[in-house]
Amino acid sequence: ARAKLRHQSAAVQVPIGLEEEFEGLVDLVELKALKFEGGSGQEVVTSDVPSNMQDFVMDKRRELIEVVSEVDDQLAEAFLNDEPITANELKAAIRRATVARKFIPVYMGSAFKNKGVQPLLNGVLDYLPCPLEVENIALDQNKSEEKVSLSGTPAGPLVALAFKLEEGRFGQLTYLRIYEGVIRKGDFIQNVNTGKKIKVPRLVRMHSNEMEDIQEAHAGQIVAVFGVDCSSGDTFTDGSVKYTMTSMHVAEPVMSLAVNPISKDSGGQFSKALNRFQREDPTFRVGLDPESGQTIISGMGELHLDIYVERIRREYKVDAKVGKPRVNFRESITQRAEFDYLHKKQSGGQGQYGRVCGYIEPLPSDAEGKFEFDNMIIGQAIPSNFIPAIEKGFKEACNSGSLIGHPVENIRITLTDGASHQVDSSELAFKLAAIYAFRQCYTAAKPVILEPVMKVELKFPTEFQGTVTGDINKRKGIIVGNDQEGDDTVVVCHVPLNNMFGYS
């Protein structure tokens, strides 16, 4: 923690034995050995520090005092004067330093055998700020998000934040953190984000997965309510104020996968699952790629997305196929090419007749659009009411180039001449003439495929620089910047998106 995260931290406990010999902990503040007995470690047995650990424990306690006294003046004074430091003095100093966010106490334990849980919870009480010691800021929506400091007392108007959702067996369970005021069962509360008013049907206090029904809850508490339709990050008030809590910071997703259900008839369950996961977890996004028609899920990493695909399978019994998202390539041309195409069709009744002449050329790099159509015809070789149909035909032809069927961009089409027939010419005839003319001259314009290139920023320990840069080169990347940040190297490079799938 000190080397990598640059934290001012020290251990407040040391383990007795490691890994399978792990028996308990020594509390460095109180200088007591703790062992956890009973079926799930619920009985804490305290005893004296084992004699073979005496020296090690005193060293570690001295280190703890040193680190805390660097950020706390009162303790530093006692430490420099070599006064004996009592458990209560040390506790008070750790609390002051932790609340001031200058020091981070480190706890030990093993969740598997439930060892070290009680001291950790005591540490939350001993060292972390109580709700009145932190300043919570709300944003007043009536006064263009002016910051308001909340008192944190039950006396004020109700302000609560829905920070977590869970599908329970009785419908959606919403966890609320109450910042101010009182919430009672049967009260009406208002969702500030949507403006809806709802009645609180049932209020519960959670003990891991057990629920205890309660009638009311006060500022500073965390409770859960049933049957409230909302998203995580919504704020509820009693309707007298219009505050929103600054919502939790949601990072942009870094990893995307294409998913689709294997069987056609499970589409309903599949979209139900995706909608629910999006409501529960703001870092999980679902989108539809308009070009490929694939459903794309995005999240914070491969494991994050794997878990959701697994949950779709487990909770909704839908087998989903996961793949790499289709990369949207583009096509473009590199040189000018002429076209002259006559489209005529004679079958009983009115025929079709349209002739278009002109050229296509690449747009200059500073052009504004991706497609330009110029009509350079002088006179009435083609009646002006057919010109929009010709433009439409060319636009349609540009939707899929003949190389790999992706849209063509950075192209200018200039119409110079043509011919029409008084009876047989129609909008359809000219539109088709334009489509065929484009296909006829496209290969002569030496088309190329363009691929999306991403700007990638990597931060990694310097000792891996060779490996990482070698791998970037393998993925056809171009390194454009290289910086040092402490022990880390920051590399900025441009890499084709197609080669970045699954990179992290």
UniProtKB/TrEMBL annotation:
Keywords carried by this UniProt record: Elongation factor, GTP-binding, Nucleotide-binding, Protein biosynthesis
GO molecular function: GTP binding; GTPase activity; translation elongation factor activity
CC per GO annotation: mitochondrion
Domain Elongation factor EFG: 448-504
SMART domains to which the protein is assigned, alphabetical: EFG_C (SM00838), EFG_IV (SM00889)
The keyword GTP-binding appears for this protein: yes
Range of residues in the leader sequence: none
Domain Translation elongation factor EFG/EF2, first and last residues per copy: 326-446
Cross-referenced InterPro entries: EFG_II, EFG_III, EFG_III/V, EFG_IV, EFG_V-like, EFTu-like_2, P-loop_NTPase, Ribosomal_Su5_D2-typ_SF
GO biological process, one term: mitochondrial translational elongation
Nucleotide-binding found in the keyword field: yes
One Pfam family here: EFG_III
Family: Belongs to the TRAFAC class translation factor GTPase superfamily. Classic translation factor GTPase family. EF-G/EF-2 subfamily.
Name assigned to this protein: Tr-type G domain-containing protein
Record organism: Aegilops tauschii subsp. strangulata (Goatgrass)
Species lineage: Eukaryota, Viridiplantae, Streptophyta, Embryophyta, Tracheophyta
